[in-house]
Amino acid sequence: MDEIDRAILRELQNDGRLSNQELAQRIGLTPSPCLRRVRQLEQDGVIRGYRAVVDPDAVGRGFEVLVSIEVARDRDAVESFEEALQDIPDVVEAYRLFGSPGCLLRIAVSDLRAYERLWIEQLTALSGVTEVNSQIIMKRIKEPRGLPVDG
């Protein structure tokens, strides 16, 4: 990956809706080689997709919670837990961690009542879960903006 590829990644992370023409102009290439490079980055799996950044409040999911979960430390329990998380749309991010807690989730729901229902009916009922701790997000200080791609 050279500096031109890194420039492409920086620009697309900043604005994934750029036309190829605009992207090429910003990085100093003509459109054809720019498009070839973008396609190659996609084929290589460097660019994994394009998404819209949605305002949680606008879609009724402005109540966000970070949830640490302990899961029984055996392969079947962990695999079952991770598979079950895929079917819970309120869980918008999930990470398995080294140490304790074993798993960290970011959940987006409408309000405290919706979170309580999710907590009681789904999170604590998942196979292998031994502990659930919740921390309500007061304020998002820094939005995800992509990864640094400097050489």
TrEMBL record:
InterPro entries: ArsR-like_HTH, AsnC-type_HTH_dom, Dimeric_a/b-barrel, Tscrpt_reg_AsnC-like, Tscrpt_reg_AsnC/Lrp_C, Tscrpt_reg_HTH_AsnC-type_CS, WH-like_DNA-bd_sf, WH_DNA-bd_sf. Keywords: DNA-binding, Transcription, Transcription regulation. The keyword Thylakoid does not apply. One of its GO terms (molecular function) is sequence-specific DNA binding. GO terms for biological process: response to amino acid. GO terms for cellular component: cytosol. The keyword Protease does not apply. It holds the Pfam family AsnC_trans_reg. Residues 1-62 form the HTH asnC-type domain. PROSITE patterns: HTH_ASNC_1, HTH_ASNC_2. This is Lrp/AsnC family transcriptional regulator. It comes from Streptomyces pacificus.
